Structure formats: C-alpha cells, structure tokens
C-alpha cells in the first residue's frame, strides 16, 4: 500500500484516532479482514458480520503487527474510529486511486466470465507494466478497496473485477475507482431473478462504461447484442471483441482439442497470430479476446498477446479445474457458479473432450440459482442440451431443479438419473466410474458441489478396505 500515517488515514476517512500512541505510525501493507493474515504495517478492517464481529479480533491483529484497526468503537488497541466501516474503507480506496497511486484502472464486469477474464488480463498486462489484480472474486464494496490497498507506488495497472447485485452497485464501485478501461463480458441470465430481467442486468452492467471519461476505452463483447448496445452509453472510445467478423479484435478458426482446450487465430487491426489456450472450454475464447483487447490498448502487438495468452494458466479454483486420477478418470470441477450460458459451454467442452474416443462423458449437474420465472424452463433446456450432445450419462443432484434437468434429458434419449444429495451421487459414481471416464461437476455456488468433485479425487475408502 502507498504509505500513509494514521493521522492521514483518519483525515481521509473522516474518523478519529483512539488508543494511538504514535499518530504518525505508518500503514504500509494492504488491509486485511482476517486477523490471522495481519502483518507488520497492515490495517485491520473490523467488520461486524452476521455470525462474527471483527472488533473482537482487533487485538489479535495488532499483536500480529497490524498498525491499527479500522473500527466503529474503541477496541483497546490503536484504531481509527468511524461511523461506517465500509463507507470509510471506500473513501480510503478512492483517495488512493485519485491522489496517491499512478495506476491505470482496468475494470471488468459481466454476468459470467469476469474472474477468468480478469485472470487473463492479469497475465497479459505484466508485459506492459506492473500489475495488481482482484484476488479470487473480491468484486464488491469490500473486495474492491481491499484490492486497491494491495497496490503501491510502483503499480502501473490495477485490474478490478466489479460485481453487482442490482442497479447502482457498479456505479458506486466506479465512484471509488473510476476506470480508464472498462470491459463487459456479457449480459446473461445469471441473477436474472434478482434483477428482474436481462434488460435490467444490462442497465446495471453498463454503468461501468458510463463511468469512463472521454479519454477512456470501453471493451465490449461484439457477440452479445445487449453488450454491443452499450457503445451508445459511454463517452469513451469503443473497441469490440468476439467471433463477429466486424469485431476489432476477433477469433477465427476456433477448435477444441482432446483436452477441451481451444485454439484460434487472433486477428487485430495490426496483425494476426495463432493462440492455443491452456484453459478448458470454448467460453475461454471470449475471455481471452477481452484480455487481448486490453493488451492491445497497452501497446502489445498480436504476437506478444498470442504468446502471453497461450502461456496463461488457470488462476482461480473451481472454474473448469481439471485433474486426472491415477486410474485415468478425469474430474472437471466447474462448481464455482452456474447459469444457462455457462452450463451449456461447460457441457460442450465435456463433449469435445470425449467425442470420437473410447471415453465416457458424465455430467454431474446441480441447481442454477436466481433464474426467477425462467427457473423450470432453463433447467429443462440444460437437460435437453446434454442429450443433444449425446453424453453418456447425466447425474442430476438435488431437489426439483435437478429433477427437471434429469427428466428433460431422459425424455430426449440419454441415460440420466436423479440423486437426492451429494452422498448418494458419490456412492453411484464410485461404484460405476472406470478408467478413461471424464466427469464434469457443475452447479451454482450455493449448491457446494465442489465438495463432490473434491471427494471424487480422494481414494475410495471402500476400495481401500476391500
């Protein structure tokens, strides 16, 4: 973090100091919310949560070296006292971006693919300058200022993922960190139940391009009409990416290899080059193209971008995370989240990994959350899509939504079963998997289906005892 004294931090936040012996003591490290992660020079942010109150851990954080706590009340150790911890923390982030750091802000949003796109960008931009990027999916009013505190005076690019739970949320985040480059991946049906329709999702996501200045750049998915239409909502320049032949940065000749990894020819106005991605799934083509557009804006040429994209590796867990057991069974853990578009893309990748080979394709699917009135039809569509791909088996895990997937798949002609919970699904899989099988595990995060994927990678205790 850009070094700041406790006096300066209190002034920026509109707070006061309590139990501080040295008001000029410096905060030099990034903020932390977990006292166990505190280190000398950090700022401990005491959040009062539903199940735990961070104020009770302030002393432990300071004992581990934190310079002070950010808190609502005195906590017996050096602290900056404010009326609203999150609001004050956002003020600190805004001050750092506007008055202390010299980094270009790259902001990313979309219904799906935000984190993978962020990870690609974070692996392309180091060729142009030093980069700090959002860790994991810390993309809300807590995670955004936290990421900003990770930057220091040497940071040249600050890559920030921005999520939204409703209209106005991204606008609030851009008031903390106004973007220089705004990327929109897509407007899908993720959280459509919360937003009340795709048009409202588009309204919310488009706030990220409205925040640009006239010198900023909007990077828009040319293959998504609702994203493409955002070109009229920004005062900045516009660059498009996608498979559309009119896209500024586009992919052609896309193929998936036997590992489900895409290759394509990258076309830019300055030149072309071949890309072979190490990530699984055709959806990664669009995610990588967005990163290519950002890299081009940073001054990299097509050959450099293609080389960097081809070298990029998975950075975030549970997103087409692929592992092969000793017996040759491959587990694809894509259980971080799910929506209809992402579900179809993952099923397509599974089919590509097994098509024409002596391998069985097995999809283990759970509920997709927050689809509102489309819930039943969306799950049935996924069952039919799995059947159209002629997968060898579908195992739907959970309640009504899983049953709708299974029924649609069975009616369309493939082998499909409904398991009420993860334990019964695990028992079925352990008793039927054979070498060479490829198993996709996918559902919305609330289903916690990653636990099943992890269990499948562990030794079978029954087999060990046999």
What does this structure look like?
The protein is an alpha/beta fold and 466 residues long. It contains 18 helices and 21 strands. The protein has a nine-stranded mixed sheet with strand order 8-9-7-10-11-12-13-14-15, sandwiched between helices. It has a six-stranded mixed sheet with strand order 16-17-21-18-19-20, with helices on both faces. A hairpin with a 5-residue loop joins strand 16 and strand 17 (330-333).
Low-confidence stretches: none
Span between termini: 56 Å
Total beta strands: 21
Spatial arrangement of strands, main beta sheet: 8-9-7-10-11-12-13-14-15
Task: Spell out the key features of this protein.
18 helices, globular, six-stranded mixed beta sheet, 466 residues, alpha/beta, nine-stranded mixed beta sheet
